Every structure is written in structure tokens, then in C-alpha cells.
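Input record, target 12 of the design panel.
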């Protein structure tokens, strides 16, 4: 793995990035004639970054929804989310989606991945319920790494009115989190959508976020071929090819449905 490329990705003006995100959110609130912002807070790094930015500039116009499924969500994750809203003094609601999910599961044929994605779609429905109730905009917390390889649930955590951090790679999100003062234990914890027991992002994808970011930077940002990217990134060609295929095959998740 080419550390020089990784350092290049991470070396950014994070004060300017924070200001750009704040201006982006303010502009869309005004343009949409909305009253505020609502987002899902999992206790992970992406939503923690959203929480810190909203708390600083939109404190009285922000609602955080903490939506664990008590059957599978780690207790520590919910505790981290509660600690974030407590320290930032953000308005929040804690909603256990277990009973809602169980009602669906009782009448549907079981399949772990489909039922896992259903959890993400239930959370999206609740986010849009409160957005509808309050005339708020739903903030999506997907970063560029996950957006580009399609690592999100379509009409689940991929559903949003605005995506303020979708241009930042996961490694850049970690640096922004440090700048914002996000707790080190949240920055260093392993990412997970927690859609089923023991669900970890890097294990499911099979590649680290550092490798994903370097590969995407070479293939997408620098328009390199897979062969040239593997050489520049000092990475196994099969890994680069896997990331490239994830990028190409997930394109349908990033565009509007085809229409006649």
C-alpha cells in the first residue's frame, strides 16, 4: 500500500471543509424552506461528524434519531450515541426498532441479508416521518468510500435529502473527526452498519478502508487503469479489480431509476 498516496488523500484543510459543509447545509435549509435537519446517529464516525457540525452551527434546528435494534445492535454503540448527544446537548429521540422489524419478520420468509437491509429501510422510514412532521431535511451520513463502492442500503441508509460528507473518503472523515474533537474511541472503532450479528464493514468487503480509498483515488480521481492503479498503489491487482467492480456494479445505487 502506497503510504504517500494515502497521506496525499488525508492532507486537507479541515477548517475549510467544515466551513463548506456548514454553508452547504445552511444553503439547502434556506433553498428548501425547511425548518431544520434530522439525521440518524449510530455511534459510528460518520454520523458523529454530522452531529458535531450540526451542534456547532444548527444546534436548535437539529434532531438526532438513535435507532438501535436491541436484538442485534451492540449496547456500546448505543451508549456512544447517547454520550455524543449528551456532550453536544443535541435534541434526540431513542427508538428501538426491534418490535417494528419483528412485525415484518413474522410475515416474511427469512433471509439474513434481506432482513438486515430491512433494518436500514425501517430507519429511513422513521427519519422521513420526523422530517415530514417537522419540515426538516434528512441528512445522509454516507462518505465517499461507501458511496463509490455501493456500501449502503438502497432506500435505507442511502436515502437522504442532502449528503454533506459524500465527497470525503473514510480516511479524510477520520481526520475531520479529529479536527472536530470527536472522541478517539469512536474514530478508531471498526465501522459497521450493524445490520446483523457481528457485522463489520471491512470484514464484509474484504478490504481495508485505507486500501479502498487509495484504489478509488487512483481509479476514479486519477482515471488510472486497474493495472496502472495497482502499480501506483503498490497493491495486489485483484484487490484493485474488486474495488473497481464494486464501483461499476453499484452505479445503479447512485442514480435515479431509469425511465421510459
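The sequence produced for target 12 reads:
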Amino acid at each position: 500500500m502506497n503510504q504517500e498516496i494515502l497521506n496525499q488523500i488525508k492532507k486537507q484543510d479541515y477548517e475549510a471543509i467544515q466551513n463548506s459543509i456548514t454553508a452547504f447545509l445552511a444553503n439547502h435549509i434556506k433553498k428548501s424552506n425547511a425548518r431544520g435537519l434530522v439525521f440518524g446517529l449510530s455511534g459510528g464516525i460518520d454520523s458523529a461528524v454530522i452531529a458535531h457540525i450540526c451542534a456547532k452551527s444548527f444546534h436548535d434546528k437539529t434532531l438526532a434519531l438513535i435507532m438501535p435494534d436491541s436484538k442485534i445492535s451492540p449496547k456500546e454503540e448505543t451508549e456512544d450515541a447517547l454520550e455524543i448527544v449528551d456532550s453536544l446537548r443535541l435534541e434526540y429521540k431513542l427508538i428501538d426498532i426491534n418490535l417494528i422489524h419483528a412485525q415484518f419478520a413474522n410475515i416474511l420468509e427469512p433471509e439474513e441479508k434481506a432482513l438486515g437491509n430491512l433494518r436500514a429501510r425501517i430507519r429511513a422510514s422513521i427519519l422521513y416521518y420526523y422530517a415530514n412532521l417537522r419540515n426538516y431535511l434528512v441528512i445522509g451520513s454516507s462518505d465517499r468510500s461507501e458511496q463509490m463502492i455501493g456500501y449502503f442500503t438502497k432506500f435505507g441508509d442511502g436515502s437522504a435529502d442532502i449528503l454533506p460528507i459524500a465527497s470525503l473518503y473514510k480516511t479524510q472523515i477520520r481526520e475531520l473527526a479529529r479536527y472536530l474533537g470527536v472522541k478517539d474511541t469512536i474514530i478508531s472503532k471498526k465501522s459497521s452498519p450493524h445490520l446483523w450479528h457481528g457485522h463489520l464493514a471491512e470484514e464484509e468487503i474484504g478490504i481495508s478502508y485505507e486500501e479502498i480509498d487509495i484504489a478509488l483515488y487512483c481509479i476514479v480521481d486519477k482515471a488510472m487503469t486497474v493495472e496502472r492503479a495497482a502499480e501506483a498503489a503498490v497493491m495486489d491487482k485483484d484487490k484493485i479489480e474488486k474495488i473497481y467492480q464494486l464501483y461499476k456494479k453499484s452505479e445503479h445505487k447512485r442514480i435515479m431509476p431509469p425511465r421510459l
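The CA atoms of residues 27 and 33 lie 10 Å apart.
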